[in-house]
Design goal:
Layout lengths: L1 H28 L1 H14 L4 H11 L3 H11 L12 H26 L6 H27 L3 H29 L6 H11 L4
Length: 197
């Protein structure tokens, strides 16, 4: 998961760098056409032609601002230099997966001395998973300034769907093939799968 996040962030950064280079070339070699495109963009947003022309003429004095405005008009994000750091994204994903993904498994480990009943261990693990998902939903709502209840509900729903898919796959493999899955292997997959969300 961490490596996947690193690679996707790196690819996204590379694409943006290439698009920025192409826009810089367009601004350097076809400045008047780029200015006209930007004026049309502002007019489409409701700005009067006179105001749009005046704003674009002001931006045209500064190449970097004109490039950023053109990229923004194409709905392309323009990260500041050094803003996107793929290795940090990958590391955060890896650490999050290890911490949050281990919580349901720790519930099983904690219950081992108290019960031999797999169903009790599984239910305990499901409860811990739901609590961790709810905490993630609260954290997401707080960071994004969203409604807490809907954020928790969506996070729990995503986790339930992912867990059900993982559990169904493990159960299907066990019942339709000669593969014998140890009791908690499919449970472990189920309990870790929610973190992909």
């Amino acid at each position: 998961m961490g490596l996947g996040d690193f690679l996707s962030s790196k690819a996204e950064q590379d694409v943006l760098v290439k698009k920025r280079q192409a826009t810089e070339w367009d601004v350097a070699n076809h400045r008047s056409e780029e200015q006209k495109e930007l004026i049309r963009h502002y007019e489409a947003l409701g700005m009067e032609n006179h105001d749009a022309t005046m704003a674009v003429n002001m931006f045209a004095k500064y190449k970097n601002i004109l490039v950023e405005q053109r990229m923004g008009s194409n709905k392309e994000m323009v990260p500041a230099d050094g803003e996107v750091q793929p290795w940090k994204n990958g590391l955060v994903t890896f650490v999050s997966f290890m911490l949050f993904g281990s919580a349901p498994l720790l519930a099983i480990v904690v219950l081992i001395p108290f019960t031999n009943n797999d169903s009790v261990k599984f239910m305990g693990s499901c409860i811990v998973t739901a609590l961790v998902l709810a905490l993630l939903g609260v954290a997401k709502a707080r960071i994004a300034s969203n409604n807490y209840v809907s954020s928790v509900a969506v996070t729990l729903f995503n986790g339930i769907v992912a867990a059900a898919a993982a559990y169904s796959l493990g159960w299907s493999l066990q019942t339709t093939s000669s593969i014998k899955i140890p009791p908690f292997s499919s449970h472990a997959v189920l309990l870790l799968e929610w973190n992909i969300q």
